[in-house]
């Protein structure tokens, strides 16, 4: 059952973290800064609650969506491997065989040791969603990272704004000051971590790459250089096309984690060679 994925310590940790950040931001920092009853306070609470809701929605989609499994009937298209020589063609097909699942792997699929199966367009196995990030939930994973980054930056701004206008001289106890500093440092660290992860996935999307393919590409480029050739990622179609292949052709739906009508079966992907 997919709901069983929620039974994990790391998922409980994510819930606790989001709950803690939401509670402290709304009921301590915004309340302390402008008060929840004021119009500025209410507006900030509405915006922040909306961001946290989007974050939760993407998180649920990520956890509950099957990232994509290889159908039993799948057999690789030998002609499509594009290798002219019979022996090399055989090797190329053999390299796409998963010994653990005893099936063939479609292009961009990889075996996940944690899930114990092959996953379509696998990016990585993420312990924070207790699921693989693959063909069907990559978009939700990206929106999760995006909304979480915006949310944590928002919270950091609230803490800073609250600290600046506070009269620290008389009113507050030492423990309260320590709580402010600790929360501020924690939120800055969280914003930087999530921001770096977001930057990394924007880089991957504009190159139409997965994390696994990035590392495979580094090795392939090194091997190509050694033999005096150059290497190009086979699924790179240019920045805009790459974005539409991952997030969809409709720009208005780019940030909706469930708008997936542009995805097909995850078994075949156009390569830059197809355009020649
Ligand atoms: Zn496998
Ligand atoms: Zn996995």
From TrEMBL:
Protein name per UniProt: S-acyltransferase
Keyword Mitochondrion (UniProt): no
Entry text on domains: The DHHC domain is required for palmitoyltransferase activity.
EC number: 2.3.1.225
Topology term for the membrane: Multi-pass membrane protein
Organism listed in the record: Ziziphus jujuba (Chinese jujube)
UniProt subcellular location: Endomembrane system
Pfam families: DHHC
Cross-referenced InterPro entries: Palmitoyltrfase_DHHC, PFA4/ZDH16/20/ERF2-like
Main location (coarse class): membrane
Phylogenetic classification of the source organism: Eukaryota, Viridiplantae, Streptophyta, Embryophyta, Tracheophyta
Family indicated by similarity: Belongs to the DHHC palmitoyltransferase family.
Positions of the Palmitoyltransferase DHHC domain: 94-216
PANTHER family, alphabetized: PALMITOYLTRANSFERASE ZDHHC16 (PTHR12246)
Reaction catalysed by this enzyme: L-cysteinyl-[protein] + hexadecanoyl-CoA = S-hexadecanoyl-L-cysteinyl-[protein] + CoA
TM region positions: 7-30, 42-64, 144-166, 178-206
